[in-house]
Amino acid sequence: MHFASDNSGPVHPEVLAALAEANQGYAMAYGADALMNQVRDRIRAIFEAPGAAVYLVATGTAANALALATLSNPWETVFCSAMSHIHEDECNAPEFYSGAKLTLVPGGDKMSADALRRSIQGEETRGVHGPQRGPVSITQVTERGTVYSLAELQALCDVAKEFGLPVHLDGARFTNALVALDCTPAEMTWKAGVDVVSFGGTKNGLMGVEAVIFFDESKAWEFELRRKRGAHLFSKHRYLSAQMAVYLTDDLWLRSARRANANCARLVQGLRAAGAEFLHAPDANIVFASFPRSLHKRLHDAGAVYHLWGAELEGDDADEMLPCRLVCDWSIEAEQIDQFLALF
Ligand SMILES: *Cc1c(COP(=O)(O)O)cnc(C)c1O
Protein backbone atom coordinates (compact mmCIF):
# COMPACT_ATOMS: atom_id res chain seq x y z
CA MET A 1 0.00 0.00 0.00
CA HIS A 2 2.43 2.59 -1.22
CA PHE A 3 1.10 6.02 -2.18
CA ALA A 4 4.06 8.26 -1.31
CA SER A 5 5.05 9.21 -4.86
CA ASP A 6 5.19 7.96 -8.41
CA ASN A 7 8.96 8.33 -7.95
CA SER A 8 9.06 5.57 -5.36
CA GLY A 9 7.68 2.94 -7.73
CA PRO A 10 9.87 0.48 -9.63
CA VAL A 11 11.23 0.82 -13.16
CA HIS A 12 9.02 -0.96 -15.69
CA PRO A 13 10.50 -4.39 -16.61
CA GLU A 14 10.27 -3.54 -20.33
CA VAL A 15 12.57 -0.60 -19.63
CA LEU A 16 15.12 -2.74 -17.82
CA ALA A 17 15.01 -5.24 -20.69
CA ALA A 18 15.59 -2.41 -23.19
CA LEU A 19 18.57 -1.22 -21.16
CA ALA A 20 20.07 -4.71 -21.22
CA GLU A 21 19.49 -4.88 -24.96
CA ALA A 22 21.15 -1.50 -25.48
CA ASN A 23 24.13 -2.73 -23.49
CA GLN A 24 25.77 -4.50 -26.43
CA GLY A 25 29.03 -3.42 -27.95
CA TYR A 26 29.69 0.20 -28.83
CA ALA A 27 27.48 3.19 -29.52
CA MET A 28 28.47 6.76 -30.30
CA ALA A 29 28.47 9.03 -27.24
CA TYR A 30 26.80 12.32 -26.26
CA GLY A 31 23.52 11.77 -28.08
CA ALA A 32 24.98 10.65 -31.42
CA ASP A 33 23.67 7.10 -30.82
CA ALA A 34 21.28 5.47 -33.29
CA LEU A 35 18.60 5.05 -30.62
CA MET A 36 18.46 8.83 -30.20
CA ASN A 37 17.62 9.19 -33.89
CA GLN A 38 14.78 6.76 -33.30
CA VAL A 39 13.58 8.76 -30.26
CA ARG A 40 13.69 12.06 -32.18
CA ASP A 41 11.71 10.60 -35.08
CA ARG A 42 9.17 9.00 -32.77
CA ILE A 43 8.60 12.17 -30.73
CA ARG A 44 8.25 14.24 -33.90
CA ALA A 45 5.66 11.75 -35.18
CA ILE A 46 3.75 11.53 -31.88
CA PHE A 47 3.62 15.31 -31.55
CA GLU A 48 2.90 15.85 -35.26
CA ALA A 49 5.84 18.24 -35.26
CA PRO A 50 8.35 17.25 -37.96
CA GLY A 51 10.62 20.21 -37.18
CA ALA A 52 10.77 19.76 -33.39
CA ALA A 53 14.14 19.69 -31.62
CA VAL A 54 14.31 16.89 -29.04
CA TYR A 55 16.79 16.43 -26.18
CA LEU A 56 17.07 14.09 -23.20
CA VAL A 57 18.14 14.85 -19.65
CA ALA A 58 18.01 12.71 -16.53
CA THR A 59 15.86 14.79 -14.18
CA GLY A 60 12.76 16.91 -14.43
CA THR A 61 14.48 19.72 -12.61
CA ALA A 62 17.20 19.81 -15.29
CA ALA A 63 14.56 19.75 -18.03
CA ASN A 64 12.64 22.67 -16.51
CA ALA A 65 15.65 24.74 -15.50
CA LEU A 66 17.47 24.37 -18.84
CA ALA A 67 14.29 24.94 -20.86
CA LEU A 68 13.41 28.09 -18.92
CA ALA A 69 16.99 29.37 -19.11
CA THR A 70 16.80 29.00 -22.89
CA LEU A 71 13.51 30.91 -23.02
CA SER A 72 14.51 33.80 -20.77
CA ASN A 73 17.11 36.48 -20.09
CA PRO A 74 18.58 37.21 -16.65
CA TRP A 75 16.64 40.50 -16.41
CA GLU A 76 13.32 38.76 -17.02
CA THR A 77 10.74 37.07 -14.85
CA VAL A 78 9.04 33.68 -15.32
CA PHE A 79 5.28 33.64 -14.61
CA CYS A 80 4.12 30.52 -12.77
CA SER A 81 1.73 29.24 -10.11
CA ALA A 82 2.76 29.63 -6.47
CA MET A 83 2.35 25.86 -6.16
CA SER A 84 4.55 25.08 -9.15
CA HIS A 85 7.39 22.59 -8.87
CA ILE A 86 9.79 25.18 -10.32
CA HIS A 87 8.99 27.41 -7.36
CA GLU A 88 8.54 24.94 -4.50
CA ASP A 89 10.67 21.93 -5.30
CA GLU A 90 13.70 22.79 -7.40
CA CYS A 91 15.91 24.58 -4.88
CA ASN A 92 16.06 27.65 -7.19
CA ALA A 93 17.55 25.64 -10.07
CA PRO A 94 15.46 27.57 -12.63
CA GLU A 95 16.72 30.87 -11.19
CA PHE A 96 20.27 29.47 -11.01
CA TYR A 97 20.35 28.35 -14.65
CA SER A 98 18.42 31.30 -16.08
CA GLY A 99 19.38 34.18 -13.82
CA ALA A 100 15.73 35.21 -14.11
CA LYS A 101 13.33 35.41 -11.18
CA LEU A 102 9.92 33.83 -10.75
CA THR A 103 6.72 35.86 -10.46
CA LEU A 104 4.04 33.87 -8.65
CA VAL A 105 0.59 34.25 -10.16
CA PRO A 106 -1.96 34.55 -7.32
CA GLY A 107 -4.57 31.81 -7.05
CA GLY A 108 -4.55 28.08 -6.57
CA ASP A 109 -2.86 25.18 -8.30
CA LYS A 110 -4.26 26.18 -11.67
CA MET A 111 -3.51 29.67 -12.97
CA SER A 112 -6.50 31.52 -14.39
CA ALA A 113 -6.09 33.52 -17.59
CA ASP A 114 -7.23 36.70 -15.80
CA ALA A 115 -4.78 36.28 -12.93
CA LEU A 116 -1.98 35.59 -15.40
CA ARG A 117 -2.85 38.70 -17.42
CA ARG A 118 -2.85 40.86 -14.27
CA SER A 119 0.54 39.48 -13.22
CA ILE A 120 2.03 40.15 -16.64
CA GLN A 121 0.53 43.65 -16.71
CA GLY A 122 2.11 44.29 -13.31
CA GLU A 123 5.62 43.83 -14.65
CA GLU A 124 7.57 46.06 -17.04
CA THR A 125 6.01 49.12 -15.43
CA ARG A 126 9.30 50.49 -14.07
CA GLY A 127 11.32 50.76 -17.26
CA VAL A 128 14.94 49.82 -16.89
CA HIS A 129 14.60 49.54 -13.11
CA GLY A 130 12.17 46.63 -12.96
CA PRO A 131 12.12 43.04 -14.16
CA GLN A 132 11.18 42.54 -17.80
CA ARG A 133 8.45 40.10 -18.81
CA GLY A 134 9.62 36.58 -19.62
CA PRO A 135 8.16 33.12 -20.26
CA VAL A 136 5.00 31.63 -18.79
CA SER A 137 5.39 28.16 -17.22
CA ILE A 138 2.35 25.90 -16.85
CA THR A 139 2.29 22.51 -15.09
CA GLN A 140 0.18 19.67 -16.52
CA VAL A 141 -0.79 17.56 -14.39
CA THR A 142 -0.59 20.28 -11.73
CA GLU A 143 1.20 19.72 -8.45
CA ARG A 144 -2.21 19.25 -6.79
CA GLY A 145 -3.33 16.51 -9.18
CA THR A 146 -5.66 18.65 -11.29
CA VAL A 147 -5.60 18.80 -15.08
CA TYR A 148 -6.08 21.92 -17.21
CA SER A 149 -8.68 21.43 -19.94
CA LEU A 150 -7.58 22.20 -23.48
CA ALA A 151 -9.64 25.40 -23.34
CA GLU A 152 -7.90 26.47 -20.13
CA LEU A 153 -4.47 25.77 -21.65
CA GLN A 154 -5.40 27.67 -24.77
CA ALA A 155 -6.61 30.65 -22.73
CA LEU A 156 -3.31 30.84 -20.80
CA CYS A 157 -1.26 30.56 -23.99
CA ASP A 158 -3.41 33.25 -25.63
CA VAL A 159 -2.59 35.62 -22.76
CA ALA A 160 1.13 34.86 -23.11
CA LYS A 161 0.91 35.54 -26.87
CA GLU A 162 -0.90 38.86 -26.27
CA PHE A 163 2.36 39.98 -24.67
CA GLY A 164 4.64 38.10 -27.06
CA LEU A 165 5.86 35.75 -24.33
CA PRO A 166 6.90 32.10 -24.86
CA VAL A 167 5.17 29.25 -23.01
CA HIS A 168 6.82 26.33 -21.23
CA LEU A 169 4.86 23.26 -20.13
CA ASP A 170 6.16 21.26 -17.15
CA GLY A 171 4.93 17.82 -18.14
CA ALA A 172 6.51 15.66 -15.44
CA ARG A 173 3.15 13.82 -15.57
CA PHE A 174 2.42 14.69 -19.21
CA THR A 175 0.98 11.29 -20.11
CA ASN A 176 -1.29 11.09 -17.06
CA ALA A 177 -2.84 14.37 -18.23
CA LEU A 178 -2.96 13.24 -21.85
CA VAL A 179 -4.95 10.09 -21.11
CA ALA A 180 -7.18 11.98 -18.65
CA LEU A 181 -8.08 14.48 -21.39
CA ASP A 182 -8.14 11.81 -24.11
CA CYS A 183 -6.56 14.25 -26.56
CA THR A 184 -3.47 14.21 -28.79
CA PRO A 185 -0.02 15.41 -27.68
CA ALA A 186 -0.23 18.13 -30.35
CA GLU A 187 -3.53 19.40 -28.95
CA MET A 188 -2.09 19.58 -25.43
CA THR A 189 1.01 21.46 -26.61
CA TRP A 190 1.76 23.42 -29.77
CA LYS A 191 -1.82 23.53 -31.03
CA ALA A 192 -2.76 25.27 -27.77
CA GLY A 193 0.26 27.59 -28.01
CA VAL A 194 2.96 25.80 -25.97
CA ASP A 195 6.50 26.42 -27.25
CA VAL A 196 8.60 24.05 -25.15
CA VAL A 197 7.68 20.92 -23.17
CA SER A 198 9.39 19.05 -20.38
CA PHE A 199 8.06 15.61 -21.31
CA GLY A 200 8.34 13.38 -18.26
CA GLY A 201 9.19 9.71 -18.23
CA THR A 202 10.61 8.96 -14.79
CA LYS A 203 7.34 9.21 -12.86
CA ASN A 204 5.70 6.92 -15.39
CA GLY A 205 8.07 3.94 -15.22
CA LEU A 206 11.46 5.02 -16.59
CA MET A 207 14.65 4.87 -14.56
CA GLY A 208 15.44 8.52 -15.12
CA VAL A 209 14.75 10.30 -18.41
CA GLU A 210 12.81 13.38 -19.42
CA ALA A 211 12.70 14.84 -22.92
CA VAL A 212 12.81 18.54 -23.67
CA ILE A 213 10.93 19.31 -26.86
CA PHE A 214 11.24 22.64 -28.71
CA PHE A 215 8.59 23.20 -31.37
CA ASP A 216 10.63 26.15 -32.63
CA GLU A 217 14.06 24.90 -33.64
CA SER A 218 15.68 28.33 -33.47
CA LYS A 219 16.48 27.90 -29.76
CA ALA A 220 17.85 24.38 -30.15
CA TRP A 221 21.55 25.16 -30.34
CA GLU A 222 21.37 27.44 -27.31
CA PHE A 223 19.71 24.61 -25.38
CA GLU A 224 22.50 22.22 -26.40
CA LEU A 225 25.12 24.64 -25.17
CA ARG A 226 23.28 25.24 -21.91
CA ARG A 227 22.83 21.51 -21.34
CA LYS A 228 26.55 20.88 -21.76
CA ARG A 229 27.61 23.93 -19.74
CA GLY A 230 25.11 22.91 -17.07
CA ALA A 231 26.70 19.43 -16.86
CA HIS A 232 23.60 17.61 -18.06
CA LEU A 233 24.91 16.17 -21.32
CA PHE A 234 25.34 12.45 -20.69
CA SER A 235 28.31 10.76 -22.34
CA LYS A 236 26.82 7.25 -22.32
CA HIS A 237 23.68 8.78 -23.72
CA ARG A 238 22.42 5.54 -25.31
CA TYR A 239 21.06 4.49 -21.91
CA LEU A 240 18.85 7.57 -21.82
CA SER A 241 17.80 7.00 -25.43
CA ALA A 242 17.01 3.33 -24.81
CA GLN A 243 14.60 4.22 -22.02
CA MET A 244 12.75 6.84 -24.03
CA ALA A 245 12.70 4.61 -27.12
CA VAL A 246 11.00 1.71 -25.34
CA TYR A 247 8.68 4.12 -23.50
CA LEU A 248 7.27 5.20 -26.86
CA THR A 249 7.10 1.64 -28.25
CA ASP A 250 3.91 -0.44 -28.11
CA ASP A 251 2.22 2.38 -26.18
CA LEU A 252 4.15 1.68 -22.96
CA TRP A 253 3.83 5.36 -21.98
CA LEU A 254 0.06 5.31 -22.53
CA ARG A 255 -0.49 1.89 -20.95
CA SER A 256 1.39 2.89 -17.82
CA ALA A 257 -0.43 6.20 -17.39
CA ARG A 258 -3.84 4.64 -18.07
CA ARG A 259 -3.17 2.04 -15.42
CA ALA A 260 -2.08 4.62 -12.85
CA ASN A 261 -5.08 6.83 -13.57
CA ALA A 262 -7.53 3.90 -13.49
CA ASN A 263 -6.25 2.73 -10.13
CA CYS A 264 -6.44 6.28 -8.85
CA ALA A 265 -10.06 6.48 -10.02
CA ARG A 266 -10.75 3.27 -8.08
CA LEU A 267 -9.17 4.85 -5.01
CA VAL A 268 -11.19 8.05 -5.43
CA GLN A 269 -14.42 6.10 -5.75
CA GLY A 270 -13.69 4.21 -2.53
CA LEU A 271 -12.66 7.34 -0.66
CA ARG A 272 -15.78 9.13 -1.81
CA ALA A 273 -17.96 6.25 -0.60
CA ALA A 274 -16.15 6.40 2.75
CA GLY A 275 -16.92 10.12 3.06
CA ALA A 276 -13.39 11.49 2.68
CA GLU A 277 -13.06 15.19 1.85
CA PHE A 278 -11.17 16.08 -1.33
CA LEU A 279 -8.99 19.18 -1.34
CA HIS A 280 -8.57 19.32 -5.11
CA ALA A 281 -10.29 17.61 -8.05
CA PRO A 282 -8.47 14.25 -8.45
CA ASP A 283 -8.21 14.43 -12.25
CA ALA A 284 -5.29 12.08 -12.91
CA ASN A 285 -3.18 9.91 -10.56
CA ILE A 286 -2.89 12.12 -7.46
CA VAL A 287 -5.44 12.61 -4.68
CA PHE A 288 -5.43 15.21 -1.93
CA ALA A 289 -7.90 14.21 0.76
CA SER A 290 -8.59 14.76 4.45
CA PHE A 291 -9.67 12.21 7.00
CA PRO A 292 -9.50 11.97 10.80
CA ARG A 293 -6.23 11.42 12.63
CA SER A 294 -7.51 8.14 14.09
CA LEU A 295 -7.98 6.77 10.59
CA HIS A 296 -4.53 7.95 9.50
CA LYS A 297 -3.09 6.11 12.50
CA ARG A 298 -4.93 2.92 11.58
CA LEU A 299 -3.68 3.14 7.97
CA HIS A 300 -0.16 3.88 9.15
CA ASP A 301 -0.17 0.97 11.61
CA ALA A 302 -1.37 -1.34 8.83
CA GLY A 303 1.68 -0.37 6.75
CA ALA A 304 0.22 2.17 4.33
CA VAL A 305 2.85 4.66 3.16
CA TYR A 306 1.94 8.20 2.05
CA HIS A 307 2.64 11.82 2.98
CA LEU A 308 0.54 13.88 5.33
CA TRP A 309 0.30 17.36 3.82
CA GLY A 310 1.39 20.00 6.31
CA ALA A 311 0.13 17.94 9.25
CA GLU A 312 1.57 15.69 11.98
CA LEU A 313 0.36 12.17 12.68
CA GLU A 314 1.04 12.55 16.40
CA GLY A 315 -1.50 14.67 18.26
CA ASP A 316 -4.21 14.46 20.89
CA ASP A 317 -7.28 15.19 18.83
CA ALA A 318 -8.26 11.84 17.25
CA ASP A 319 -11.07 13.45 15.22
CA GLU A 320 -8.98 16.25 13.73
CA MET A 321 -9.11 16.14 9.91
CA LEU A 322 -5.60 15.85 8.51
CA PRO A 323 -4.85 16.41 4.81
CA CYS A 324 -2.70 13.94 2.90
CA ARG A 325 -1.48 13.22 -0.61
CA LEU A 326 -1.97 9.81 -2.22
CA VAL A 327 -0.21 9.06 -5.51
CA CYS A 328 -0.84 6.01 -7.70
CA ASP A 329 2.13 5.01 -9.83
CA TRP A 330 2.07 2.76 -12.91
CA SER A 331 2.84 -0.34 -10.84
CA ILE A 332 0.20 -0.22 -8.14
CA GLU A 333 -2.29 -3.10 -8.15
CA ALA A 334 -6.05 -2.85 -7.70
CA GLU A 335 -5.73 -5.29 -4.77
CA GLN A 336 -3.51 -2.81 -2.94
CA ILE A 337 -6.14 -0.09 -3.40
CA ASP A 338 -8.84 -2.41 -2.10
CA GLN A 339 -6.69 -3.46 0.85
CA PHE A 340 -6.20 0.22 1.70
CA LEU A 341 -9.90 1.05 1.36
CA ALA A 342 -10.88 -1.93 3.51
CA LEU A 343 -9.22 -0.17 6.44
CA PHE A 344 -11.68 2.76 6.29
C1 LIG B 1 8.60 15.36 -10.12
C2 LIG B 1 8.35 16.63 -10.82
C3 LIG B 1 9.36 17.26 -11.56
C4 LIG B 1 10.74 16.70 -11.73
O1 LIG B 1 11.41 16.41 -10.57
P1 LIG B 1 12.85 15.71 -10.51
O2 LIG B 1 12.89 15.23 -9.12
O3 LIG B 1 13.85 16.76 -10.78
O4 LIG B 1 12.92 14.65 -11.54
C5 LIG B 1 9.05 18.44 -12.22
N1 LIG B 1 7.82 18.96 -12.17
C6 LIG B 1 6.82 18.38 -11.49
C7 LIG B 1 5.46 18.98 -11.52
C8 LIG B 1 7.05 17.21 -10.77
O5 LIG B 1 6.05 16.65 -10.09
Describe this structure in words.
- The protein is α/β, with parallel strands linked by helices and 344 residues long.
- It has 2 domains: 13-251, Aspartate Aminotransferase, domain 2; 253-341, Aspartate Aminotransferase, domain 1 (Alpha-Beta Complex), CATH 3.90.1150.
- It has 14 helices and 11 strands.
- The protein has helices spanning 13-22, 34-46, 60-71, 85-88, 93-98, 113-122, 150-162, 174-181, 185-188, 220-229, 238-247, 252-273, 293-301, 334-341, and strands at residues 53-57, 76-81, 101-105, 132-139, 167-171, 196-200, 210-214, 277-278, 286-292, 307-308, 321-327.
- The strands form 2 sheets. The chain has a 7-stranded mixed β-sheet, sandwiched between helices.
- A hairpin with a 7-residue loop joins strand 8 and strand 9.
- The two termini are 14 Å apart.
- The relative contact order is 0.17.
- The mean pLDDT is 97.
- The structure holds pyridoxal-5'-phosphate.
- Pyridoxal-5'-phosphate binds at residues 59-61, 64, 85, 139, 143, 170, 172, 202-203.
- The site of pyridoxal-5'-phosphate has 11 residues, from helix 3.
What are its keywords?
single chain; 344 residues; alpha/beta; Aspartate Aminotransferase, domain 2; Aspartate Aminotransferase, domain 1; 4-stranded antiparallel β-sheet; 11 strands; globular; binds pyridoxal-5'-phosphate
Topology of this structure?
Elements: H1 13-22, H2 34-46, E1 53-57, H3 60-71, E2 76-81, H4 85-88, H5 93-98, E3 101-105, H6 113-122, E4 132-139, H7 150-162, E5 167-171, H8 174-181, H9 185-188, E6 196-200, E7 210-214, H10 220-229, H11 238-247, H12 252-273, E8 277-278, E9 286-292, H13 293-301, E10 307-308, E11 321-327, H14 334-341
Parallel strand pairs: 2-3, 2-4, 4-5, 5-6
Antiparallel strand pairs: 1-7, 6-7, 8-9, 9-11, 10-11
Helix pairs in contact: 1-11, 2-11, 3-10, 6-7, 8-12, 12-14
Pyridoxal-5'-phosphate binds next to helix 3.
